[in-house]
Amino acid sequence: MAQNLQSSGSRRSSSRPLRVPPSVGRPESTAEVYALNRYADRQYAWHVAASLQKSFGYAWQGMTYAFQTQRNFRIHTIVGTIAVSLGCYLQFRPEQFAILLLTIGFVMGTELLNTAIESVVDLTVQQSYHELAKIAKDCAAGAVLVSAAVSMAVALFLYVPAIWLRLQSLA
């Protein structure tokens, strides 16, 4: 059963007591009370979205945030758009387009996960340095690097033969 805690400094609008999982325990410091108050402000954050439309809206907000704030996400978006356009010009077969779109989705998805992991780490450590935070961020960035490197290999397999055929047909 979750404990009920009441804090005088809470920004919560309701008068209901703060519900905290038993694993959290009783706060012993001002920082813990502050953290629990922040937890209370988002007490329904783990609930399912009210509708499928809201769920897609939240996903779109995440992608918009990444596009507006993450340079690499914008780069991946531009490169992906160019890759699809070039695939149209080279008249890729449907299976080639499927491979291309899966690869682009994989890179963009890892970039979104990297952004999410970095945000959670920043939220957790705030302005302090922690070696585990560095490791988490570096590993997330490494995952993006691996997906981008694999996408380059896929691009070579898709584009080099298509461009070669196009050049041969011009000669």
What can you tell me about this protein's structure?
This protein has 171 residues and is mainly alpha-helical. The chain folds into 2 domains: 3-41, no CATH class; 52-170, Helix Hairpins, CATH 1.10.287. Helix content is 71%, strand content 4%. It is built from 5 helices and 2 strands, in the order E-E-H-H-H-H-H. It has a two-stranded antiparallel sheet. Helix 2 crosses helix 3 and helix 4 packs antiparallel against helix 5 (131-170). The longest helix is centred in the last third of the chain and has 40 residues, at 131-170. Residues 1-16 have low confidence and may be disordered.
Largest sheet: 2 strands, antiparallel
CATH topology of the largest domain: Helix Hairpins
Shape: elongated
Task: Work out the radius of gyration.
Answer: 23 Å
Given the structure, what is the number of helices? 5
N- to C-terminal separation?
A: 77 Å
* Helix fraction by DSSP (H/I, runs of at least 4): over 70%
- Stretches where pLDDT falls below 50 for ≥5 residues? 1-16
**Residue-averaged pLDDT, rounded?**
82
In brief:
The chain is built from 5 helices and 2 strands.
List its salient traits.
171 residues; mainly alpha; Helix Hairpins
Topology:
Elements: E1 3-5, E2 18-20, H1 30-41, H2 52-69, H3 71-89, H4 94-125, H5 131-170
Antiparallel strand pairs: 1-2
